[in-house]
Amino acid sequence: MAFGCRTTKYVPDDAYLLNKIEIENEAKDLSKEELRYYVRQRENVKILGFWRFHLGLYNLSGRDNTKGFNKWLQRIGEEPVLYDELLRQKSNEQLRLYLKNKGYYHAEVNDTMIVVRKKKAKVRYSIKAGERYSVNNVSYRIEDDSIKPYILGDTINTLLKKGVPFDADLHDKERSRITRQMRNNGYYGFRKEFVYFLADSTLGNYTVNDSLVVVKDRVQMAGREDSIINHRKYRIKDVYFLVGYEPQRAVREGAEYLNSFDSLEYERCKILYGENLNFRADVLINSNYIFPGDLYNVDLVEKTQLLLAELQLFRFVNIRFRELEGEVDDEGNGLLQCYIQLSSSKPQSYTVEVEGTNSSGNLGAAGSFNYKHKNFLRGGEVFDMRFRVAGENQRSRTGELFQTLEVGGDATLTIPKFLMPFKIENFRKRYNPRTNFTLSYNYQRRPDYTRTIANSRIGYTWKSTPLVTHFLSPVDFSVINVPYINPDFQEQIENTFLKYSYQDHLISSTSYTFIYNEQSLSGIKNYHYFQANLQLAGNILDGVSSLVASNQGNEFNEVFGIRYAQYVKADIDWRYHIRVNNINSFAYRIFMGAGYPYGNLTVLPFEKRYFSGGANSLRAWPVRGVGPGSYEETQLDYYNQTADIKLEANAEYRFKLFWLLEGAFFIDAGNIWTIRSTGNSEMDSKGLFDFNSFYKQIAVGVGTGARLDFDYFVFRLDMGVKARDPVLPSGKRWILGTRSITWDDVAFNFAIGYPF
């Protein structure tokens, strides 16, 4: 095979391929990954922990660089990394400096180059860290008396405290903390460079005395020496909103550009606009924290930037300040003019999408039309309308071909404020809330049933921190109609509680969702995603309908002649992504959910029940083809297994190959269970959740996948293989390693996007 080519094919005779970097580390509180960052030379990347795939691609190329194929292989591959003596020495110096900055003043770093075989070498860095120094006392020297109260009055929040390990990184964080504090108190010109530290490590006992020094400001004087002055506060004199600002025209036309703008004044701010102001002035003011007469505050500037950017009315938002030289207020504070440059985006857009689908070998197609208006009522309201049609050819358990059809649409109006019967002061500026009104309709046709779902919802969205988002839907009302049920399916569920799930019913619920998402943090290697959902349904309807005379004495209550559901449902979804390097990453996911029906409907509505299997779940099984528990559906030709509890865990190793192609290996485990008797004795004996035995019914699948990453979307093809099938007899459920794999044990899934 071509990848059997010598890894040293392009290594000159007088050089060595850098085969491995080893770090022997005695500093227990510093990881090898931290230290490896300061090694200036890295070996060729590997996938699967051992395979230099990209070096192999490079070595596949011929020596004739005039051929396009050879150039292409070298471009997508990775050139061999040759051992470099100079970089080894620099790495040694960088490691020693890093250890010293971390408080290991007596650390020793020894490096050795070892020839492991012909043309291959490894470098070993042995670190004798010694004792780590800690902070003894922290003293302050502030040259400007006027700022002492701000710094000395906030020492309770300092990062430098007696007894903490000495760490130069803490110095930098403390400089940043003090700088932000000063800039939040009006000191517009304060910079990190005004703060530095003096560390005295001559005390003995492995301790350091830290001195924090804050110097005065330095002003450059034309033709004269710099002048040393106290730091000055700044107050906002004017605030200008430049709506429809075009940076290129501003540069090209100079001062004349702004002279062509019309203007109006609102809430002490001046709004300049080009042709027409297509939205109400309060849209800008409600998203603004910067007002004339206020002291400069960098936190409020950043909040204003965020609020304006999330309006979707502007392509970019840029906030600039200009110092008015020679002008001061009555207190001697400097004055600033604030320019908020707003480049307008197109108010309306639409997209048409066509996609192919393949789930467990079932081919289908879907098309959608999306329309968006970003300023629907001239108040920054966003109107979204979507229409989608999807069809799929599927095969039943017996191999018979059948079709499914789904047609639906929805319309959502998002208002950039909280619409409440009572006033919540400053909530808009503090949490950036939104109110959503949604109407939707969905038609689904399957061989076993046909159903329609009409839904109306009022929801609120707000962010308590940049990473935390809340969704609250106090009113979510759905009408589910089931005009057709397959007679065979009807017969099977007739004597069970499941039949109530497939009757017409109403759902009136209140729900809350909490999301913590670190993915938006720039430069972060590893990130968490956590989502928790809670839904309560039917209680308000039950309280009202119980008073209706026609419901008195009935087995269950109705509203408009339709039975309504009562249940509580909660689930969590946790994901963790680890980026090892530019080539390799790991992704993990855990899902746990349960729904408990009670009162007026003793089974969860089928659209609220959990299912497993498919492209984003247990990929070795078809959608709705797992569980509950060890129960196997044999009477119906169509997969439609649902339940009240779902537990699932997934792990995936992802690696880049070449061009747009990525590979993956994965393992999926989980199942679904019922929470109460269904009336089907076999399902109850095998599918009811039992804390003492549920783990014996876990389904396990393994597999591999290929992906094409186009940045904006990912095409994914995964092949899952059953490793453990809970429907098999106890003691014979493990398949891998015990018998040959058959086509019934394999499933293929084609999808858009990563599974998690």
Based on the model shown, name its key terms:
756 residues; alpha+beta; Ubiquitin-like (UB roll); 5 domains; 16-stranded antiparallel barrel; five-stranded mixed β-sheet; 31 strands; 15% helix; 42% strand
Structure overview:
This protein has 14 helices and 31 strands. The protein has 756 residues and is of the alpha+beta class. The chain has five domains: 127 residues, Roll (Ubiquitin-like (UB roll)); 96 residues, Ubiquitin-like (UB roll), CATH 3.10.20; 111 residues, Ubiquitin-like (UB roll), CATH 3.10.20.310; 163 residues, no CATH class; 134 residues, no CATH class. The longest helix is centred in the first third of the chain and has 17 residues. The relative contact order is 0.06. The mean pLDDT is 88.
**What is the strand content?**
35-45%
Q: Characterize the overall form.
A: globular
Judged by helices, strands and strand pairing, the structural class is alpha+beta
How far apart, in Å, are the first and last alpha carbons?
34 Å
The number of helical elements comes to: 14
Largest sheet: 16 strands, antiparallel, barrel
Number of domains: 5
Unreliable residue stretches? none
Strand order of the largest sheet: 14-15-16-17-18-19-20-21-22-25-26-27-28-29-30-31
What's the rounded overall pLDDT mean?
Answer: 88
Report the C-alpha radius of gyration, rounded: 33 Å
Q: Percentage of helical residues?
A: 10-25%
Beta strands, count: 31
